[in-house]
From TrEMBL:
UniProt name for this protein: Aminotransferase class I/classII large domain-containing protein
UniProt-listed Pfam families: Aminotran_1_2
Coiled-coil ranges per UniProt: none
Chain ranges of the Aminotransferase class I/classII large domain: 43-355
Polar residues: bias regions: 1-11
Disordered as annotated region, ranges: 1-45
InterPro entries given in the database record: Aminotransferase_I/II_large, PyrdxlP-dep_Trfase, PyrdxlP-dep_Trfase_major, PyrdxlP-dep_Trfase_small
GO MF, one example: pyridoxal phosphate binding
Position of the signal peptide: none
Taxonomy, superkingdom: Bacteria
């Protein structure tokens, strides 16, 4: 297993080895240790132990498995988790394997770490499937990004697809923030969190679980072969200790946030499922709804003679409605737009009618 050379794990120096618990630290600059703050704070690179225990209990109950709190890292967002893991796995000039179609933020975050991306394709064949033939990892590949379910396709990874990615032997960065928002109960779903065949970093967070972007608290769960996990934890501790992003004032709210997740997820699922069914009922003619398996978005397909950018500009100028064109997500072929399923039902139905009407008009 190869880790980035950015992070160096060294033996404690002589001073660190000489310290004992009864030594008075005359260099201690933590004001909470000296009666200058209402509560005591002790830095933990993985996040406060009590909070990690609460989170581990929640994940374990949700997934029906035992979760070790010492394999959890608390972060302010999944974006920060991507940045940390890129630092952990990649030197400048290395690459991460990323899905196409895919959300462009992953590429932006990699670029900020001076890391490149190599694409693997999802292809439509009545459902979105990973094209294994499109993926021959380059020598510079250091990890695979898996979005489960994918954004914008809304497709979950099948068990066979997960087997394929595990067989590559590369670390997996598994973004599962939309996992608990299935749109079709008959669809096969496999969580990647807890995968033990290959070094795996599963990302999740409150922002999506609570449909509350202001709830800036996420987490990384590390799993895989024991020796690789232990080495990854040592190195990830060094990165996390440099940032210490989540404070106790945020973690004070963790029990309430965890308690609110089931009801809030149910509320969001009801909304997105209802809007998806409304869209299916409205769509006809030249427009096809590519039904997502999960998540908050849906793709519309229309004749590729219609220019996506021209269409979106016309929608803005004439209908005061906007959507995201397919080229934002690097669709292989033109003729797609992506809609959010989160809008209030009346607003969604009204916008969908106008979008569909304009597409029909420009296709004539």
């Amino acid at each position: 297993m190869r880790f980035s050379s950015r992070v160096s794990v060294t033996e404690p120096n002589r001073i660190a080895k000489a310290r004992t618990p009864d030594v008075v630290d005359a260099s201690d600059s933590n004001p909470t240790h000296h009666g200058l703050a209402p509560r005591r704070y002790a830095a933990d690179p993985r996040g406060a132990r009590a909070a990690r225990e609460q989170l581990a209990a929640f994940i374990g109950a949700r997934d029906g498995r035992t979760v070790d709190p010492d394999r959890l890292y608390l972060v302010s967002s999944t974006s920060q988790a991507y940045a940390w893991l890129t630092k952990l796995l990649c030197d400048p000039g290395d690459t991460l394997l990323v899905p196409r179609p895919g959300y462009p933020l992953v590429d932006s975050l990699a670029a900020l770490e001076t890391v490149g991306t190599q694409s693997y394709r999802l292809e439509w064949a009545g459902s979105w499937l990973v094209d294994a033939l499109s993926l021959t990892p380059s020598p510079s590949a250091r990890g695979v990004v898996l979005i489960n379910p994918n954004n914008p396709t809304g497709s979950y990874l099948s068990g066979g697809e997960l087997d394929f990615f595990a067989s590559l032997g590369l670390p997996l960065i598994a973004d599962e923030v939309f996992f608990e928002f299935p749109l079709d109960d008959a669809v096969e779903r496999h969580r990647i969190a807890g995968e033990d065949r290959v070094l795996t970093f599963a990302l999740d967070g409150m922002s999506k679980n609570l449909a509350a972007p202001y709830a800036k608290l996420g987490w990384i769960e590390v799993s895989g072969p024991g020796d690789q996990v232990e080495e990854a934890l040592k190195r990830l501790d060094i990165i996390a200790d440099a940032y210490l992003p989540v404070g106790d004032l945020i973690l004070d709210h963790l029990p309430a946030m965890l308690e609110a997740i089931p009801s809030q997820q149910a509320r969001v699922r009801e909304r997105v499922r209802g809007n998806l069914e409304a869209l299916k009922a409205l769509a006809s003619g030249v427009v096809t709804v590519y039904p997502p398996e999960g998540g908050w978005n849906v793709l519309l397909r229309f004749p590729d003679v219609i220019d996506e950018e021209d269409l979106v500009v016309r929608l803005i100028q004439e209908e005061r409605v906007t959507v995201q064109p397919g080229f934002f997500f690097d669709m292989r072929v033109p003729g797609f737009v992506s809609l959010s399923l989160l809008l209030e039902p009346d607003a969604f139905a009204n916008a969908a009618r106008r979008i569909l009407q304009v597409i029909e008009e420009v296709s004539l």
